[in-house]
Amino acid sequence: MAESERSGRCFCGKVRFTARGEPKWVAHCHCESCRRATSSPFTTYAGYPSAAVTWLGEAPAIYHSTPGVTRKFCRNCGAPLSFEGDRWPGETHLFVASFAQPEAFSPMIHVHVGEQLSWLHLADGLPRYHTTPRDGPPLA
Tens digits of per-residue pLDDT, 73-96? Predict the structure, then answer.
């Protein structure tokens, strides 16, 4: 059986990527940092081994948003594309919404619900963690 490969891109299409294999996890993140980086009430990531991610087209721009955190985005349209943190060496967290088929991903949990916006109410039945679980999957 061939290994699965999923592709994605920024808004303008100048930065593209492929991710090989299945993600290690898929999570909704409610932290303030991710909200500000995406101008959205929360965002959804798919965590891949960095070696499974290939950047195509123009290279993404890099922003070190906080110590130990690298965010990649398109320098042309500004679309955010990924998160990498020292806490998760060797992992790249890709924004599910930037994939060609985001509906192919099934979120597993919510993280940083301690920072969730008070007016956001989601009844999806997924486990919810006040921060990032220390003993669970390595989440953004």
Answer: 999 999 999 999 998 999 999 999
